[in-house]
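User: UDP-2,3-diacylglucosamine hydrolase, Echinicola rosea:
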Amino acid sequence: MNIQLTPHKKVFFASDFHLGAPDQQTSKLREDKIIRWLGQIENEAAAIFLVGDIFDFWFEYDTVIPKGFIKFISKISQLRDKGVPVIFFTGNHDMWMKDYFTKELNIPIYHNPITLEINNKKLLVGHGDGLGPGDKNYKLLKKVFTNKFCQGLFKWLHPDIGIKIAEKWSGSSRISNQAKNEDSFKGNDEWLWQYCKDVEKKMHFDYYVFGHRHLPLTLDVSEDSIYFNLGEWVSQYTYGVFDGEKFELSVFEE
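Assistant: Predicted structure for UDP-2,3-diacylglucosamine hydrolase:
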């Protein structure tokens, strides 16, 4: 994908909204904050990349989607009506996103990292789950979750049952990660940082942009390459912005 920025325009990146978690009331406050952020950037935005785990759980049945998030979806629809490109990536919590947003709002959905060129700068952008060394249990689970046969079996559960099971699983996953202190910085063992270094040995990117870790990170990959992690919107409200010359992380402040 290529983007040529005109003067005063920027490309924005955010991930890990986890809309729906941990409860409806808290999620709605976060949803309102995200909408205010989108309103703040919309006049400057040449494109907005939402890099996975937008929803804490999302599964598209043939004729049913999860309830809720109507204000967020309405804001995205307004942006599309204004001609602002919005690009979705799936994460490990919403990997079952299919073509609903593509058909309704002409929003492309990416399930894997993509190469992006903006004003002659090269970026590798993706959610980041399952990349790099380690995390073998999740990689095995991802094979099950992305298996078409397993997805077909899940689809036959009534949505009231299937979504309740998924929400319980999603909540237990967060509690498990907190117990294991998975959201703390792991130094040289940061697996997405290692992944970027491995990729850089084969192909150069100016910037690597990922989510998933829930940690806003700016780490050198090589002398002329940087890995950014976008953080999350449960407590940090961080996002990435590229003005055609420089990529940086910012915090949404009202």
